[in-house]
Amino acid sequence: MSTTLPGGEYKLAEDLTVTRMGYGAMQLAGPHVFGPPKDHDGALAVLRKVVELGITHIDTSDFYGPHITNQLIKEALHPYPEQLRIVTKVGATRDEKGNWPKALAPHEIRQAVQNNLTNLGIDALDVVNLRVGSVSEPTPGSLAEPFGVLAELQKEGLIKHLGVSNVLAEQIAEAQSIAPVVCVQNFYNIANRQDDALIDSLAKQGIAYAPFFPLGGFSPLQSDALSGVAARLNATPMAVALAWLLQRSPNILLIPGTSSVEHLRENVAGAGLQLPEDAIEELNGIVG
User: Fold this and answer.
1) What's the gap between Cα 159 and its chain centre?
2) Pick the catalytic residue: 10, 23, 64, 188?
3) How far apart are CA 172 and CA 138, in angstroms?
4) Distances (CA, A) of 241 to 23, 211, 234, 277
5) CA dist 92 to 2, 85, 114, 133, 151, Å?
6) Known catalytic residue: 10?
7) What SS3 class is residue 161?
8) Could you say which of 14, 127, 187, 200 is the most buried, measured as most Cβ atoms within 10 Å of its Cβ?
9) What is the CA 237 to chain-centroid distance, rounded?
10) Does residue 3 carry a pLDDT above 70?
11) 44-58 pLDDT, tens per residue?
């Protein structure tokens, strides 16, 4: 397993260690994460480069496409390298218009897990995250029923570890009362810091936090501030954003997505940027 990637490695569980620098596969599908990619061979090349670079954490879902992203992962990488860990999520589906309706009924959860197993070509999933909220934010309410189904599937041997996505702190606690949680995946970046306290709490518990949309939701002023820091450091805004996340807390795992080998290389290199203290202080002031 590679130890040269930015941030090193993180142990999600006794039998589950990943590189903190991961890869999010969502952008491999077609426009709006719907349908096949414009460049099929290019998508396969990105996935193979992920492994070549030493990344051992791929984030995906069978509702990307739908089915497309997992099928690409299987085509590119199966049989999978021994150290590769694939993290997926359930709790939504896609309709004919490309919307993301929730799919949290017990039969929908079971079908989603089976779809992931089939399209990835494996007998057990490393980690399954239950997506509870909308596309980008949590919504209050109990997750006991769908998470309980995942816990049953874990006991059946179809899932090794469980996580949650788009959730509130009380929903994480509810999930933990049902089965162990190894990771949380929420919207978070330099400008959107609503999970600051949650990240610190999870770090104390040894639970990983994987933020998505590292540059999404910035106001023009916030973007200007980030660009200014990046210019002084002779780096890109994405590099600064990724490096800031790695330095924010040791339990943060990166899952930036791209459909370009070049951008993948840039993301990996950029995440290795060491931000000086004055830059971190300035970036900490960029809050929505």
Assistant:
1) 17
2) 64
3) 11
4) 15, 11, 13, 15
5) 33, 22, 14, 9, 18
6) no
7) strand
8) 127
9) 20
10) no
11) 999 999 999 999 999
Neighbours of 227 (CB within 10 A): 14
Q: Which two tokens stand for residue 98?
A: 């490309």
What architecture does CATH give domain 9-284? Alpha-Beta Barrel (3.20)
| pLDDT value, residue 4 | 81
Domain boundaries, the chain: 9-284
Mean pLDDT over each residue of the chain, to the nearest integer:
95
Q: What is the pLDDT of residues 55-98, one digit of tens each?
A: 999 999 999 999 999 999 999 999 999 999 999 999 999 998 88
Q: Which of residues 134 and 182 earns the better pLDDT score?
A: 182
DSSP state of 78: P
Q: What pLDDT sits at residue 216?
A: 82
Report DSSP letters for 11-76, one per residue. EEETTEEEESB-EE-GGGSSGGGBSS-S-HHHHHHHHHHHHHTT--EEE--TTTBTTHHHHHHHHH
3-state helix, strand, coil in the chain (%, to 5): 40, 15, 40
Nearest to 171 by CA among 197, 195, 144, 196: 144
Residue type, 284: N
Q: Look at strands 9-13 and 16-19 and give their pairing.
A: antiparallel
As beta bridge partners, residue 164 has: 130, 184
Tokens 């309706």 found at: 101
pLDDT tops 70 at residue 2: no
pLDDT digits (tens, 9 = 90+) for 178-221: 999 999 999 999 999 999 999 999 999 999 999 998 888 789 98
Residue 245: phi and psi, rounded to 5, are -60, -45
